[in-house]
Amino acid sequence: MCLEEGTLRAATAVDHIVPHQGDVNKFWLGKLQSLCYTHHGKSKQQIETQGYANDIGVDGFPSDPDHPFNVVSRK
């Protein structure tokens, strides 16, 4: 997620790519990725709960292509 933004931060969290939602098999056997603290604690959780992240790019607009602002802009 950092590289997609053009930044580089140390990965400090292990994240389940597909949320396990309490499923023990998915928890132990699911695919993992490394994320920085900020993306794991904020952006990834927003994507899982609302379907998009609220991150703002350097241009002042939402950077997630799935953010409602960008979806409306593509129409």
Quick structural summary:
By secondary structure, the chain is an alpha+beta fold. Helices cover 41% and strands 11% of the residues. The protein has helices spanning 2-5, 24-29, 37-50, 68-74; strands at 13-16, 32-35.
Write the layout of secondary structure elements.
Elements: H1 2-5, E1 13-16, H2 24-29, E2 32-35, H3 37-50, H4 68-74
Antiparallel strand pairs: 1-2
What does this protein look like?
- The chain has 75 residues and is α+β, with helices and mostly antiparallel strands.
- The chain has one domain.
- It has 4 helices and 2 strands.
- It has a two-stranded antiparallel ribbon with strand order 1-2.
- It is flat.
- It starts with a helix and ends with a helix.
- The model has no long low-confidence stretch (mean pLDDT 89).
How many beta-strand segments? 2
Shape: flat
Largest sheet: 2 strands, antiparallel
Order of helices and strands: HEHEHH
Structural class: alpha+beta
Give the spatial strand order of the biggest sheet.
Answer: 1-2
Number of helical segments? 4
Number of spatially distinct domains: 1
Report helical residue fraction: 40-55%
Beta-strand share of residues? 5-15%
Identify low-pLDDT runs: none
Give the termini separation: 25 Å
Q: Using the CA coordinates, give the radius of gyration.
A: 14 Å
Round the mean pLDDT to the nearest integer and report it. Answer: 89
